[in-house]
Design brief:
Layout: E1 3-6, H1 22-27, E2 33-43, H2 51-55, E3 60-72, H3 77-97, E4 102-105, E5 108-111, E6 114-115, E7 117-123, E8 128-137, H4 154-180
């Protein structure tokens, strides 16, 4: 099973939120979960999980993002990366269906050559953790970026968030059902 939750309060994502049991400790949601919230993003080099970015002294910043923070139990890091690619692909499909000329490269989304997203997956001793940030207002970003606020209304941004939470939950649960309904072959 997977729980999803959209947090009404805004807060800044600094990076240390990508840790085991953050969703449990803040929202009392046990087990695998995907949380969505809005807020600024200010991840300094010290808090980057991606070693390639960290060694280049990169950082992540945006005035406001739509953040998806996930924690998944009982899976491998590679399975977590597939989950990451699934949610990014669902975001891409939504944008394309809305008539936005977007493209995906790996776990990154771009519109007109401007970066829309940041994302990372990592493993903890007890779970696999995911962060996907979609710019709403890309002001302060260290790269050429675009925000959802440039292409969607506030209501459309909320609809996009709700769609991703709902669609991801459907796919996650469908995959789990598919894994338990088959007869083994020997």
């Amino acid at each position: 099973m997977l729980e999803t939750h959209f947090a009404k309060e805004k807060f800044t994502y600094f990076g240390p939120e990508l840790r085991p049991h953050f969703i449990l400790s803040k929202y009392r949601i046990e087990g695998s979960a995907l949380l969505c919230f809005r807020g600024a993003c200010e991840v300094k080099t010290d808090h980057l999980v991606d070693w390639e970015d960290r060694l280049q002294n990169d950082f992540i910043r945006a005035k406001e993002m739509l953040h998806f923070l996930g924690e998944f139990f009982g899976i491998t890091l590679k399975e977590g990366i597939w989950i990451q690619r699934l949610i990014v692909s669902e975001a891409l499909a939504y944008l394309l269906n809305a008539g936005i000329k977007a493209e995906r490269t790996g776990d990154d989304l771009f519109i007109e050559g401007r970066k829309l997203s940041v994302s990372i997956v990592t493993a903890s001793p007890v779970s696999v953790l995911l962060h996907l940030g979609l710019n709403i207002d890309s002001e302060g970003a260290p790269v050429k970026a675009i925000g959802l606020g440039e292409i969607f209304s506030e209501q459309q941004i909320q609809e996009f968030a709700d769609y991703l939470l709902s669609r991801f939950k459907e796919e996650y649960q469908s995959v789990n059902r598919a894994a338990v309904k088959v007869r083994p072959v020997i």
